[in-house]
Amino acid sequence: MKRPVVSSLLLGFALILPAEADDQPQWGQRYTRNMVSTETGLPDRFNPETGENVKWSAPLGSQCWATPVVSGGKVLIGTNNDERRDGRHQGDRGVLMCFNESNGSLVWQLVVPKLSDDIFFDWPRAGICSPPTVEGDRVYVVTNRDEVVCLDMRGMANGNDGPYTDEGRHSTPAGEPALEAGPLDADILWLLDLREAAGVRPHDSSHCSILLDGAHLYVNTSNGLTSKHDGVDKPEASSLVVVDKATGRLVARDNFKIGQRIFHCTWSSPALGTIDGCRRVYFCGGDGVVYGIDPLDPETPAPSDKVALLDPVWRLDCDPTAPKENVHQYIRNRKESPSNIKSMPVFHEGRLYVTYGGDIWWGKHESWLKCIDAGGSGDVTETNTVWTYPLGKHCCSTPAVHEGLVYVADCDGQVHCVDALTGKPCWVHDAGKEIWASTLVADGKVFIGTRRGEFWVLATGKEKRVLSSVKLDSPIHSTAVAANGTLYVGSMTHLYALKQGAQSKGTER
Which of 5, 121, 276, 340 is deepest in the core (most CB within 10 A)? Predict the structure, then answer.
């Protein structure tokens, strides 16, 4: 590494702004995406059967791949329609549920029909996989149909606000009579279909945690492969777009020219940091490259008469020796393939922490955690890697960086604690089964769930210490979230609100 890492107290104060009332209105810390919370007093153990430290639990559908967010007295999480809350909505649907934070009662739900053209557009029963981003009484989320929607947090309680007022039609599959929007339905304020507006083709499931910066929303489009997995169907389409949060207009798109280098899909979400006095948006492409762009002026809405092109001002190829041409010939090659990035980049004290490697389904059995100097400009591949740490066969987890240590999980079921300065391991914990969720660090604890349904609580620090583990009702793909003194854990079928000293009657079945 040829240039020093820039660190500043002003950087932390500028970027890690506390949410009102200690809410958690997006996935990870604001802007930086760090999986660290300042909440305290969280339980280090709980028992869903006896209700120990369980404030409430609520049934979801049969699958939950999303992470909850908490804001304004509400908890929102994506799922499917297999646990029907409204009998008018029959069949497979994507669902975003909004619960009361106090008791887990359902307030409203966004119900979205599946894209029925091809299962590789919208995988059966996957539901809404994207975590929402909330600001005030506005909820921004990407649906299973690859639509960016702005919702009223109050639902239909204050009427059907516009300009969008066709919720009944939107919640009904094509060819069926439109339903009339009811009191349990979400209130859509505006809607932008990325397939039409940005010319993208989503693959398997649309996934994005929207980055909100002033007047703008930075959105991953989930552009990916054809159903035959033999190439990118829309190679000219963008992977990252910018949307006006007030109107839903597409105002900018990337000019990365990723095109046919996307190995499977683009599922990572952007982060934002300030380096050398300049703000920069960092985005991980489906080609295994991290891109940096100059963001739009957050205080000024973009002109309505054109769509700006966002050229990369910074790039780092995480796996520069991997194949770069005709990449899809390496599909199903478990020994040699390009890398891709499914997790979010974490910005912390002038560095980026990124996990990358062979695709879970189609790529090589290798993955890594990389620490990157976020400064400089141009192609910094050869100069800005600080260190690289090997992980398991695959990894799709976002790291948590806290007090000089990095906590990250991999798909081999290993939880790693790594020295943030040197990249040397401090300890590794075998959780016993694949992990697709991300670690949450809060209150001196590391929280993580596995695909076997075990939820682990470990102590932070350089010495490994297991505090507890509990077997839940179903696999865990959701990342734990802490807000207002409560820990929220989503399994495939239930959302648990955990609070020290609480005593519920046990899991609601």
Answer: 340
